[in-house]
Write a structure and sequence with these properties.
The chain is 32% helix and 7% strand. It is mainly alpha-helical and 827 residues long.
């Protein structure tokens, strides 16, 4: 047992080396996307104008339903059904994930798969309960193999419903390339609906006659030797629109049956608060618990995912899906202190000024050549080049022009230097990118009209949760003004003379922030803020966040999210982050806990953009629990009903204000206080299993030799099993190993390489000894922490404001906390 345990680090390194190398790839900047290779022009991929989703986005603003312009309807259609050719990525990831991920299986309802996620009987009828994915209205569960879709068990359209207008191949002719028009239809460039909102089915242009002859749908569902094969060509690829991660049940008009919602029960902007990423990206679900992939994904609580999963930064940092509320107030707030300087490739981002005339309200957010005022969508505030740049980057991150994108890093596994994907290259070589840039302005216009708050008072049965008396509510407003509004209100008093937050973004930001924070603790600020909060119109047009970058030295939350590196200088999103972001200073040091001893020690954080988090908006807070950036605080409820949301809200908000009630690791069984909490640990001895079908032919001769050299390599034939990774080990020790140190200065990089070599030597030495597990694990942990990109492993700590854990101010009494909760429910 202990000898196998000692394989931990060597296994991770060998996996990256063994399965990451391959035949020569083309050079970045030399490839074209499928649409360009097919001779398609961006203008022919025009936006759809059908108002098919007119029943969605129910809301009440001043007692009326919102209406949308033709431009906004085009923008909503783009948000919900445009995939931009990213089906190439999601098909490729079935290989890069070594069979863990397979969207074609995820969308299927075959009743008797031996490896189905949750046993026999999984299908559309329980998809929401198990996966948290939104079933598209007007579909029924498959009752047998569909002869018109290559024998696949896919959702069938209800014949009583009108046809999906976006699947019209005559009106929206697809990209004719490869096998399309031969063994598979050309289809529409929007693809066909799959029965899951946000996933579209497109014919696979690689499904030629040879692939068709080999295809066997029953074996695809039931024979691992068939479907665990990198050479298997599926008849379809699945594309993903923004809706997949952002559409959810409408909080004020929830479905009676979440497995069968109507369009009127769905909202475009609330975020996929319920999906289980460890099950979506891992089609075998909990049956695959002994896979190290499952363990790495399992840290994502429902409604969260690591958005750098594909372009991995070697930090496992799942974050909650952003709800999009009050976009225009958010944009106007950016005019106050969201000014950023952009340079280099960032200057190639489209701005609203490229699409609207001078004097248009949207023209005020950019001044040539490189000054922009921008909201901060990503939690670390890195997407700082303007609202359109933030929207366009998302399409790259979900696979648009993956032919180029994947040349700049090694997907999923990492271990190869990362380089920026230039906007200039995408604009030159990708028709899908060109079409996307043309259409995102209308998407932004849609958000301007669709992102009003969802108030509990408007939800079915909501008023009974708002029963507190006027005096309690009044006291809650005062507490909010004193303790919360400095981060969670876009309406704050005028800044004192000499304090400039608009021009502070960059090297001097921390000085300005500290001055601001000190001012918010004064009687002057509190008196003015109370006056504002007590006004009847305080919530009108209030984004309920300053969007200022807050140093995590103050927040005390887990550091992995603010330590993300994808947007720092010369990394993959270099063109989508500002100079202001790239030149932010280090926030200093934080105190973190050792995962074996529990001891506290200092952890110095790097600068260059890292170390900050923008405050979450508190709009519709009642509907968005659990809390914190990773949904780790509070109990999750799978039902989207108002009662279930309120159960989750009440448990979550109490854990925020009474942090001693939060879950914690057994390591801290006899301890409470700041920094104590949950450490995500491997739940059972786990392995990296690679089936024969994923071992490239040129590597197969090395498999036998590798088994002789490395005792932790198992398997039979040409298959490989690496492990075990022992139960109880913090998964972050493995997922956060920095193999290259490529973001470090040259001198530090050399020292880091020596630490990697020292870790390998220590692992080799320990393999020769037989020790008890705690001793061995303890000895390896320090070596692994020394090469970790994020050493902070407690995931549900921090945001102790208003509690005795926050040492800068006295904690609130229980009555004040209850009064504050009463006010928060009204937001």
């Amino acid at each position: 047992m202990s000898r196998r345990t000692l394989s931990i680090c060597g296994a991770a390194i060998i996996a990256a080396g063994l399965f990451g190398c391959g035949p020569d790839e083309p050079k970045p900047g030399t490839v074209l996307d499928e649409a360009m290779r097919a001779g398609v022009k961006a203008e022919s991929l025009r936006a759809a104008g059908e108002d098919y989703f007119h029943d969605m986005d129910y809301n009440l603003v001043d007692g009326r339903r919102p209406t949308f312009t033709p431009q906004q309807i085009e923008g909503r259609n783009m948000w919900l059904v445009w995939t931009g050719g990213n089906d190439t990525l999601w098909d490729r990831l079935t290989i890069d994930s070594i069979g863990t991920f397979d969207l074609l299986k995820t969308i299927s309802s075959h009743p008797d798969q031996p490896n189905s996620p949750y046993g026999a009987g999984y299908g559309r009828h329980n998809r929401w309960r198990y996966l948290g994915l939104v079933n598209e209205p007007c579909f029924k569960e498959a009752t047998g193999p569909d002869p018109n879709r290559f024998g696949l068990w896919l959702d069938a359209r209800d014949p009583s419903c009108p046809s999906d207008p976006f699947a019209d191949a005559t009106k929206y002719p697809g990209v004719k390339i490869g096998a399309r028009g031969k063994t598979v239809p050309v289809s529409s460039y929007y693809g066909e609906p799959t029965g899951i909102v946000g996933l579209r089915l497109l014919p696979n242009p690689n499904f030629d006659e040879q692939a068709r002859q080999r295809w066997n749908s029953e074996r695809f569902y039931n024979d691992p030797s068939y479907y665990f094969d990198s050479k298997l060509v599926r008849p379809y690829r699945v594309g993903m629109s923004c809706a997949f991660c952002h559409v959810g049940p409408n909080p004020i008009k929830p479905p009676d049956d979440p497995e069968n919602p109507k369009w009127e029960n769905l909202s475009s902007n609330v975020g996929a608060q319920y999906f289980w990423w460890d099950r979506v990206f891992n089609w075998r679900g909990e049956k695959n618990e002994s896979s190290i992939f499952y363990q790495a994904l399992h840290v994502s609580r429902p409604g969260t995912l690591d958005t750098s999963l594909v372009s991995t930064d070697s930090i496992n940092n799942p974050r909650s899906m952003n709800a999009v509320y009050n976009l225009m107030p958010r944009m106007l707030e950016a005019k106050k202190w969201g000014r950023e300087t952009i340079a280099g490739g960032g200057l190639n981002n489209k701005q609203f000024n490229d699409f609207v005339p001078a004097g248009d309200p949207l023209s005020q957010f950019f001044v040539w050549p490189g000054r922009t005022w921008t909201p901060r969508v990503l939690k670390d505030g890195s997407d700082s080049v303007g609202a359109l740049g933030a929207l366009n980057r998302v399409y790259l991150n979900i696979g648009l022009f993956s032919e180029e994108w994947l040349l700049h890093f090694r997907a999923v596994i990492g271990g190869r230097p990362i380089s920026p994907i230039p906007i200039e290259t995408a604009r030159k070589n990708s028709v899908y990118w060109q079409a996307t840039e043309m259409q995102t302005p209308n998407m932004a216009r849609f958000f301007l009209g669709s992102t009003d708050p969802h108030y509990l008072k408007d939800a079915p049965g909501g008023p009974r949760y708002l029963a507190e008396d006027a005096a309690t509510l009044q006291r809650g407003k005062v507490v909010f003004a004193d303790r919360c509004a400095r981060c969670h209100s876009s309406d704050i008093p005028p800044l004192p003379s000499g304090l400039d937050l608009e021009g502070a973004n960059g090297p001097g930001y921390l000085t300005a922030w500290n001055a601001y924070w000190a001012w918010t603790k004064t009687d002057d600020f509190r008196a003015q803020m109370r006056e504002k909060v007590l006004r009847d119109d305080f919530l009108k047009g209030n984004y309920l966040s300053t969007e200022l970058r807050v140093p995590i030295t103050l927040l005390g939350i887990n550091a992995c999210s603010p330590l993300a590196t994808n947007a720092i200088r010369d990394n993959v999103w270099d063109n989508f982050s500002s100079e202001s972001y790239k030149t932010l200073p280090s926030v200093g040091s934080i105190r973190i806990r050792h995962p074996v001893t529990g001891a506290e020690y200092d952890y110095t954080l790097p600068g260059g953009g890292r170390g900050f988090i923008r405050p979450a908006s508190l709009i519709s807070l009642w509907s968005t629990a659990p809390f914190l950036q990773n949904n780790t605080v509070g109990h999750f409820e799978w039902s989207p009903s108002v009662d279930a949301r309120m159960r989750s809200f009440e448990d979550s908000i109490e854990q925020m204000l009474w942090p001693e009630r939060r879950d914690k690791d057994p390591l801290f069984a006899n301890e409470n206080g700041p920094g104590v909490g949950v450490i995500d640990r491997i739940t059972t001895d786990s392995y990296l299993d690679v089936a024969e079908g994923y071992i490239p032919d040129y590597l197969r001769p090395l498999v036998g030799a590798s088994r002789r050299l490395f005792p932790f390599l198992g398997g039979s034939g040409y298959s490989v099993r690496i492990g075990p990774f022992p139960k109880g080990m913090p998964i972050g020790l493995i997922t956060n190993i920095d193999l290259l140190g490529s973001e470090m200065p040259p001198a530090e990089r050399e020292a880091h390489k020596k630490r990697i070599l020292a870790l390998l030597k220590h692992t080799k030495d320990e393999l020769k000894a037989s020790k008890d597990l705690p001793t061995v694990l303890g000895r390896l942990v320090d070596d692994m922490l020394a090469v970790s990109k994020c050493k902070d492993l407690v995931v549900n700590k921090g945001h102790y404001f208003g509690t005795d854990y926050f040492r800068e101010e006295p904690g609130l009494g229980d009555n004040d906390k209850r009064a504050l909760i009463a006010f928060l429910k009204t937001l």
